[in-house]
Design brief:
homooctamer; Rossmann fold; 2 domains; 9 helices; alpha/beta
């Protein structure tokens, strides 16, 4: 009855040499046995695995096969780290990750932990939405020292514009699906950010913390003069 | 050939007693002779006339019949004032009208001059967009003293949220059609404002300076304890 | 495993002095222990707490820690009142809250109870939709006496326009997500209200009863000459 | 060079027997010589011609070949009438055509003159928008006597809902492209009308006065017991 | 704790004399005890009740209080009929109700049974979608005899256009939410129908079988010369 | 209580002679007993049945009545094959079915198995998305030999454009609803494909693997010179 | 001052061998001298040139340099043919090109003349929209003999569905931007076609006659067993 | 008559120290005398001026007052350079600017010339759209050496995804408004890019070459270890 062995996926074996980043797993929607198989194959090949959008039940399944797997409920990241994940040089370069509200933190943590996994240093600056503008202003100094800022915000998404006007390095804006009514699952925040009147702002997809963390790591590597971190 | 006399419009003779505001003319798209007719009728009835979205050529036509007509190119308001337009009591109550950029000024002027025509006092605070956040913060004191604030902004429309977090009185947000690309003729700014995470913000239609000025006048009258100003 | 203590939220300690309103809790989606923590902290700081979009199960959890917590199933407001919530001066000023249909009542109650919590007096005028126009007309006198009117309506949202033509004070329009088919979760009603041909109408987000109640309270305070009620 | 004779259009010779209505010409965008050709062919076949969305310059061109052609600048209808267009029985049955504002009149006239051309009697009730609700209420008696009502409105399009609640016969709603900002060329009015909470309302395309006049004529014929009028 | 007695709804007591139709209940989302209350009140006032979008569990609840209540699973209509519902004169006038596919039948039945409840005679012509065009053509004769046709279709909604070209009486088009992908819950079908190149077509909201049945009854009454059937 | 026998569907008995394809069943949403009835009737008439979007529980129900029914969990196809389904001539003609990622495979399998059921030969080329462009380039030779290519992709849907530039035969693009954020359930992929700058690309509805397999079979039959395969 | 020599475009020299089709020019928006340069280069390389969306003034400019250039005002195609364009074998295979109305003919001619230029035989079947369904049915025989059908339609775009149900070969649907109101520049027709309930239909971009002609030629070549025609 | 002196704009005097970039002028829509005034003020303050979206007539007006003003017709940049604009260190760091087609070049030039004005080195790689995939692949080496890549594309916007899979540094995607039909003025390309399945891609507004050039310069400065270039 049907496809008993599901072998379609081909490993992209040259990705790390081409892009400087290993393959990563988007866990959401993947069936259990299939997911375990991918984690095993990548662990064997790379000595480490990184997955996003994992559920706690996926974690429990993977943990049975790979006991050293780690899971974070907030970011929903499911990873197996290698020894070299823990040794980072610190040359003072860092990424700042900000949120407008507390509801944006899961996406921010996906971004922050992605960057950390790829070897970058991260400072978290959460709950500094523009309706209490003094909160973000009180962090101006640390924002200006960051090699780039990830601005995570739902609702009206104005955080990116305010930060964009305060700093000299790139701001990566992440709209979140937080909100209701005419927020359209994050589309309103995305439009706000794309139309920002501030300079130095680029935008990734709604809730795409991973993508923001990835680009921020690319910039971090350039800034710290170490292309593979 | 067709409708030689176009007499369909009925004057809404009880409007002023019902609402506290006289009839107003939306000039855009009205044919010349028809527009002159309305101005004459209203001038006769009310002793004054107020019209919005007038072109300079409409002004020139109306001026021939009504030499005391006044026109402002920025706000596109075409009006005939009466003596009582000029005597305003000043009890310290005022409306603040802000813009994000200079391109938003025509809409802001429509709002400001509407409120002034209806008897309110107005303070203008222009070009204080959030990408240079110190500009709006330097005006915090005057914003807090206003009985209400009209926040006019295109592009990403974040100005209203920042002001909403600074003041205790209502903020009327006016999205403008200024922008390009994914600004959708002001719809992105409208969505930003509708989704604002700040409190005390309500929204009018894109470029609807008149509507904002009208509501602001209603609030001004309540605040100054004078329902018909 | 991950973030055992979730301490990101910073209390906005100057909000009440800046805006005249205390911090308020948006309950929906907040985890139980986290929600209880916020309620306790705000109760300690302010002597009262006000939260919207609470579920009955959230109420039950909060009640265990704070027995004096009160919950209303219709408005979904979960609050802890202080003694001063109950003493309101009555100078005749009031807010009228109207709905088009009975299905709009939960949003209307969120608005009404918000305003009452903040010290305003409210009159409810429900189920006066425009398809039976005599219903709203029979309430014309009370509508005209209100310092402002909150018009809550889904489907085609025409209620605001009709009321806007009857009164001299501001009308705050609240589109609701009531409807089906091409109602787009309230977006059609929002567009109707934003495009209203009546004057004096401003709009808040879909189902945002809280926001409407907040602005109405701001106007109420101005009208009754008592900025902090 | 190319298609010197453009003969693709086949006359739909059985249309009148099938549908009770002759072929009609949508003039907008048709080239002059081609348009004249169609008018001549239809005049020969039917002894009369009816065209919509004609420009004044198209009228001038057609008039050269068919001097009895008549044009109305408001409705933009260009027609050649036959003797039987003028003899209508009057059994008291009539169609009411209403508009919200004066700017909606061109579309209303397209509807009214279409119905008149096809043999129906029409009463015009213009400029009765809902922001001055007494205006439409003062016409309640004549609206209730009509066999159907055509409600033409732009902006927020609420007129149809109010009328729908007042009458026992069908209301045909025509959204118009009048408006600005978030009116989206009439789409907001269309959505308002489609979502109407009143019963007995059906909707035609934006600015489609012709379509409304056609359906109203169908109902008129049923009501007056004369299927081909 | 909150609103123990929920008495906001006012009965619209003059509706039947004004519109020729009694009040009707939209059951979806109404709480059980509240729904039973409405059914009882209307049964007492009118001797009959008609409700749409009822669930089977709502039927079971109502049946306990009103044993003569009847329910149809396909149309989801929950009604209590009176003796006069069953005596209809038959003068040969009838409404045709068509569907494109079998999945559109629930909406079609809501339309058909609504019209039947209000006293009209109905012929059903189901599963005659345009991708097998001979099916609808084989029904041409009965379609042409109907006083009006209700065309119910999802997906691309082309059925209305084909029927519109075949008949002389009005076609009421009902888009359904049947479909997937880019059907947008019926919006694509709605747009198809609104843009129909055939004449005599008007459109109601997505899945609004009740609305179509109501208008069809209005036309039926006019055609059979019996305004209250 | 209601429609005990649901006999509305008329079999389209001339379909196979008209179109070369038998009737097919869209299973999703069909009730169990109704579905079994259709399968039985078609099996009797055609000696085989093919259904799409079947759930595993529908399979279990049908299997009870028709034990030879076969189900594939990936494609969700539920079929009863006849002897002639298994004899295919092989003249070297084949269809290539490609996917951008592994999550697109269910839609691709619906396409592939549809074409196979109708007698075509299919080559599968999965997980060759454009972000690892060498993967699709390594398959260039087999793509160029196919009589047509089905390109299945979600997210940004760029696969079709790249393939369109590599081959001389038609490319049928199938957007999938895979994605999140601003992917709008596949609408973004659909727009990408419709706007492709490559030639030879046509598009079917989101997730419409069946439709793509059907058209590919039509082309396969033309290419192999066998109109009924 | 600026870019005096604009040499960015690289000729895609292997396109014809890769795809079986030469490079083609999209004329709209190209500056005169630049356009002439491209025509000259391609004429030199290929001995022929084919361009779409040319204006008459572009034709006049090109003609000065290349006197044998030919232009068709209806299709807006500007081409230079070579001798081999005129020798076509005729094995009875042909493409049928249909339109719903006469306003769709320019797009249909772009499709038809594209296919003819690439060596295919074309039959034109114009003005057979579904509101007069007998027109398309009277062409059923020729439609069934075509190797594929191009269905060009604006407004509600239902033509493709009806044809799809009549034929055994592929139908390529081309939505046109003809229409007004809620036709959204062709988007409504595109959605109709994408959602078609008929099988064998694929869709190209709005007004993309060229794209449809290209795919039809690909199918024509497969059907006539001559991959390069 | 009106606002004779238009002095609203306040110079943002601390911008360069805060952000590392001087104030820039968005010329489109600015009135002549106003524009000249800004250019003069900025020239005096900064010794150089940079403006985007200037028309040739604006250039001619500015040139009269500031003869050393330079204008580029392709990018529409109007600038006055200072001596230090011309001395750039070259440490091998550079930005790659790519386009899908030739029609995207004006936006690409706005990006490239912006980056050059701010001191970065730029390599141009134009007309390498994905429908001829060998074109972009032949540039793989130079793309991999760039510190970041700006990918400018309209229509389906797939260029960014392909490049994203080839390089290790950030890709800034710029959708352009090039296209027709369902390209929605660039919105389709924007959605493609936002949904890219490749990593390392961020997006700016439609046609926002300036914004892309600005961010690219920020990254260039970080990569070359020179924060103010």
């Amino acid at each position: 009855m049907g496809h008993s062995d599901f072998k379609y996926e081909e490993l992209d074996t040259t990705r790390e040499s081409r892009t400087g980043f290993p393959e990563v797993v988007f866990c959401e929607g993947k069936k259990d046995e299939y997911l375990v198989g991918i984690y095993k194959k990548l662990l064997e090949k790379d000595g480490k695995v990184f997955g996003t959008r994992a559920s706690i039940s996926q974690y429990e399944v993977v943990k049975k096969s790979i006991p050293e797997a780690e899971y974070d409920e907030v970011s929903r990241i499911l990873k197996v780290v290698s020894a070299d994940n823990h040794k980072k040089k610190d040359d003072g370069t860092f990424i700042a990750v900000c949120t407008g509200g507390t509801a944006d933190i899961p996406v921010a943590e996906e971004a922050a932990q992605t960057a950390e996994y790829f070897g970058a240093r991260v400072e978290r600056i959460y709950d500094v939405g523009v309706s209490g503008i003094h909160r973000v202003l009180s962090k101006q100094s640390i924002l200006q020292d960051a090699c780039c800022v990830i601005a995570v915000a739902g609702m009206e998404g104005a955080l990116a514009s305010v930060i964009g006007g305060l700093v000299r390095n790139p701001v990566i804006a992440v709209p979140t699906s937080i909100g209701y009514g005419a927020s359209f699952g994050g589309m309103s925040a995305l439009l706000t950010m794309i139309n920002s009147c501030a300079n130095g702002i680029t935008v990734v997809n709604i809730d795409n913390g991973y993508g923001a963390g990835y680009v921020a790591t690319q910039i971090y590597r350039l800034a710290s003069g170490n292309e593979s971190a």
